[in-house]
Amino acid sequence: MTASEFEKLADTALEHLSRALEESSVDCDCEPKGSGVLELEFGDGSRIIVNRHSAAQEIWVASKSGGYHFRWSGADWVNTRDGTELFAVLSKLVSHQSGTPVVLQRM
């Protein structure tokens, strides 16, 4: 995949995440922090950072429970360790940090 193809796919995923959070009932501020970076801040001050990592062509997620790397499979963004899908993982992380159950639909 070319760099521009990766950036387009990753940016689409980040935009989808931002919209999904806005449409959910979760209490979280979702702020873009520069090109390709989203910062999710929760009521307790904790954060989840989601960013595209162009050199590795991955989306990286940093949360209280750890760091995750997701690579495009041709159909979904999948965790490089266990194959779980990005929005399924983010649903669990956001639910845990917000204290509110949320299901973020994948793209």
Give descriptors for this structure.
107 residues, alpha+beta, Metal Transport, Frataxin, Chain A, 6-stranded antiparallel β-sheet
Q: Give the averaged pLDDT, no decimals.
A: 94
What separation lies between the terminal Cα atoms?
Answer: 19 Å
User: What name is given to the CATH topology?
Assistant: Metal Transport, Frataxin, Chain A
Q: The biggest beta sheet, please?
A: 6 strands, antiparallel
Strand order of the largest sheet: 1-2-3-4-5-6
What coarse outline follows from CA principal-axis ratios?
globular
How many structural domains does the protein architecture include? 1
Q: From the helix content, strand content and strand pairing, which structural class follows? A: alpha+beta
What is the count of DSSP helices, taking H or I runs of 4+ residues? 2
Portion of residues in beta strands equals 25-35%
CATH homologous superfamily assignment: Frataxin/CyaY
Radius of gyration: 13 Å
Low-confidence stretches: none
- Share of helix, binned: 25-40%
Give the name of the CATH architecture: 2-Layer Sandwich
CATH class: Alpha Beta
Give the ordered list of helices and strands.
HEEEEEEH
Quick structural overview:
By secondary structure, this protein is an alpha+beta fold. It has 2 helices and 6 strands; from the N terminus they run H-E-E-E-E-E-E-H.
